[in-house]
């Protein structure tokens, strides 16, 4: 998870857009220096595009900016594009790629999931239950693996203990 601050140092409005994820709008800063104001309807919202107001050109004034929280912990990995919606501006640093790679924990869990999925479970008419307990963010989570036929099914129960 990362907090990004997108500043607009130009004399025209700029929107910021990222592919594959949505970000949480944390703050809209210094919009009033040019006579505009922040958009209260987007504060605290999840978006994939946000408008950043223009700078008034006064060197004594701060640049308008938007601070957003990017959460890259989801299942999507690879190259994510972020940019402006005016293609002619991409050469000025307004289009780039960020590479999102899986964490070592996520990669290990994915290898384990693939290995478990490849196991040919014996056919049994009675159900067999295997229980595993672990801690997730201060909570106890219990995963039950049930076998009733050829393939397992997983059910997760979260408790606040």
List keywords for this structure.
161 residues, mainly beta, Immunoglobulin-like, 2 domains, four-stranded antiparallel beta sheet, 1 helix, 42% strand, disordered C terminus
How does this model look, in words?
By secondary structure, the chain is mainly β. It has 2 domains: 2-100, Immunoglobulin-like, CATH 2.60.40.420; 117-159, no CATH class. It has one helix spanning 104-117, and strands at 2-7, 14-18, 23-29, 46-47, 49-52, 65-70, 78-83, 95-100, 128-136, 139-147, 152-159. A hairpin with a 4-residue loop joins strand 10 (139-147) and strand 11. Mean pLDDT is 76; it is low at 125-161.
Structure summary:
With 161 residues, the chain is mainly beta.
Question: What secondary-structure arrangement, pairings included, does this model have?
Answer:
Layout (H helix, E strand, L loop, with lengths): L1 E6 L6 E5 L4 E7 L16 E2 L1 E4 L12 E6 L7 E6 L11 E6 L3 H14 L10 E9 L2 E9 L4 E8 L2
Antiparallel strand pairs: 1-6, 2-5, 2-7, 3-4, 3-6, 7-8, 9-10, 10-11
């Amino acid at each position: 998870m990362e907090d990004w601050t997108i500043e607009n140092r130009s004399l025209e409005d700029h929107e910021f857009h990222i592919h594959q994820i949505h970000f949480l709008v944390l703050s809209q800063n210094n919009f009033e220096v040019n006579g505009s104001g922040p958009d209260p309807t987007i504060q605290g919202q999840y978006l994939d595009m946000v408008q950043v107001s223009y700078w008034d050109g006064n060197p004594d004034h701060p640049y308008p900016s938007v601070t957003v929280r990017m959460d890259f912990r989801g299942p999507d990995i690879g190259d994510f594009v972020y940019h402006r919606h005016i293609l002619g501006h991409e050469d000025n640093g307004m289009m780039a790629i960020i590479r999102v790679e899986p964490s070592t924990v996520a990669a290990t869990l994915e290898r384990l999931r693939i290995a478990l999925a490849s196991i040919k479970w014996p056919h049994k008419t009675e159900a067999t239950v295997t229980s595993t307990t672990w801690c997730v963010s201060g909570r106890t989570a219990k995963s039950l693996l049930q076998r009733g036929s050829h393939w397992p099914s997983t059910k997760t129960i979260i408790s606040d203990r």
